[in-house]
């Protein structure tokens, strides 16, 4: 016991010496080995089709539409979320200024009519979201040409059904473009590329509509395209090849334009029945011709968000069983963000506790790259439906979080915050001059653990500690949420073991 006490005294003396070397005018140089909070992507889908989430009406003025965006983002910031998946193309239309496709009817009431007074909704969303340290992923539906109608009446002259009339089909209650037609695929790639080039989006997102969900007794009318292709593949394999080809092209095209822009897909949550054993339901592989397991395995996406729109307990569509199965397909170590059906608290009368528990289950798998959740959809949180927003804030998102970074994407590492000083209770530093910094993360040491207390937009270069004592750390954050080395700051009474140990 005497030997142990002597050893402990020597360690404390060594820490005191190290600390005296580290502290300079209350600023402490960075050191390795610290443990930082777990990253988590916390996002909502913002659906514009049928005015589900935004704008709430196609007859709102430009000012009212902008006000709704600001209100939405303020609420999401208050809830400590860090992402929106914003639907910018519902069915061959555009909720942004496009030379390739017409303005959406959901924006102005008439397809092809621009907002008046003019503004660009995607650009406005990006600017306002980034100020609040919220990522914007532009969400596209690739093949649907018109939702809830098979009529071409009211479609703008530059709509894709008129550009490619031989490949536009009425199927079920919608109009669809033929995924097997190269001119259609080329057009879709051009639309995606245009947005990547012109807008400061953080991600590009595709939903679960590939070949349409099957209609009873009605086959998708692409027989002539299949025969004209001369393919030796079966019809089903040919259809899957068409979708695979688009996914590969989009991934490589996005990377060639802006290698830091993320590419994600939210497929139907069941790849094939029986995967894992006991799971039953529609087969996305056989019915939608979406081999999403392959896209994940091959690393054709940066993140996958399977739509796990089922409860936890029923075995035939078990949320945890499906989540774990998807994680086990991730041989390229990409990210998985579970897709959750918050709308079911209204449409299916689920208890809000079901959604809370699903997020908690997702967190249990963080060590195998379950790194967040995307909720469908925004309005249930903005409107605090059934107290859902309050419960998320109290039980899940009580403090901010940075989105997980993607080491395989190309972005410059941010430099450490420059010229950090203290002035009373305020920590200050100089503005970024490199153009790399998107935001600043501020940490406080609490019970020997670094806690993220604030994420500041790049233009904010001070933080009021509100007279809290202890240790703080400031880090620069780039657009991929990669952080710089920290700069540590001591405030008030110094505890040697905390800062160096």
UniProtKB/TrEMBL annotation:
Gene3D superfamilies in alphabetical order: Glycosidases (3.20.20.80)
Protein keywords: Signal
Name the record gives this protein: Glycosyl hydrolase-like 10 domain-containing protein
Signal sequence interval, chain numbering: 1-30
Domain Glycosyl hydrolase-like: 40-340
Top-rank taxon: Eukaryota
Organism: Pinctada imbricata
């Amino acid at each position: 016991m005497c030997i142990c006490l002597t050893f402990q005294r020597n360690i404390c003396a060594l820490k005191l010496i190290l600390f005296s070397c580290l502290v300079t005018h209350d600023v402490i140089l960075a050191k390795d080995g610290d443990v930082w909070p777990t990253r988590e992507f916390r996002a909502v889908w913002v659906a514009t089709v049928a005015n589900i989430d935004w704008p709430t009406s196609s007859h709102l003025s430009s000012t009212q539409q902008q006000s709704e965006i600001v209100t939405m983002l303020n609420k999401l910031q208050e809830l400590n979320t860090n992402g929106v998946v914003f639907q910018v193309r519902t069915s061959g239309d555009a909720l942004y200024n496009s030379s390739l496709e017409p303005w959406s009817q959901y924006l102005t009431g008439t397809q092809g009519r621009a907002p008046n007074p003019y503004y660009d909704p995607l650009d406005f969303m990006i600017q306002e979201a980034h100020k609040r340290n919220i990522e914007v992923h532009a969400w596209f539906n690739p093949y649907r040409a018109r939702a809830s109608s098979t009529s071409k009446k009211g479609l703008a002259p530059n709509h894709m059904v008129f550009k490619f009339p031989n490949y536009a089909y009425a199927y079920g209650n919608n109009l669809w473009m033929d995924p097997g037609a190269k001119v259609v695929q080329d057009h879709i790639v051009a639309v995606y590329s245009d947005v990547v080039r012109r807008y400061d989006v953080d991600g590009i997102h595709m939903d679960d509509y590939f070949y349409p969900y099957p209609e009873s007794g009605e086959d998708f009318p692409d027989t002539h395209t299949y025969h004209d292709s001369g393919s030796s593949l079966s019809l089903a394999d040919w259809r899957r090849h068409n979708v695979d080809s688009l996914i590969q092209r989009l991934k490589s095209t996005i990377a060639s334009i802006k290698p830091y822009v993320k590419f994600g897909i939210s497929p139907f949550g069941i790849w094939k029945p029986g995967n894992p054993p006991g799971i039953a339901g529609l087969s996305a592989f056989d019915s939608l011709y979406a081999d999403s397991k392959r896209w994940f395995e091959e690393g054709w996406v940066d993140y996958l968000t399977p739509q796990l729109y089922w409860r936890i307990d029923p075995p035939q569509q078990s949320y945890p069983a499906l989540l774990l199965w998807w994680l086990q397909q991730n041989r390229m170590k990409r990210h998985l963000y579970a897709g959750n059906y918050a709308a079911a608290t209204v449409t299916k009368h689920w208890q809000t506790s079901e959604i809370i528990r699903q997020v908690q289950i997702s967190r249990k798998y963080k060590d195998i790259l379950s790194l967040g959740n995307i909720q469908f959809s925004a309005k249930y949180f903005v409107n605090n439906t059934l107290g859902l927003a309050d419960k998320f804030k109290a039980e899940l998102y009580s403090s901010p979080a940075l989105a997980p970074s993607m080491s395989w994407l190309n972005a410059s590492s941010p430099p450490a915050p420059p010229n950090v000083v203290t002035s009373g209770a305020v920590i200050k530093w100089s503005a970024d001059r490199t153009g790399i910094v998107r935001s600043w993360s501020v940490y406080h040491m609490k019970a020997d653990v670094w806690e993220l207390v604030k994420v500041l937009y790049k233009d904010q270069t001070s933080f009021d500690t509100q007279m809290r004592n202890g240790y703080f750390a400031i880090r620069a954050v780039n657009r991929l949420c990669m952080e710089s080395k920290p700069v540590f700051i001591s405030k008030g009474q110094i505890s040697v073991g905390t800062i160096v140990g």
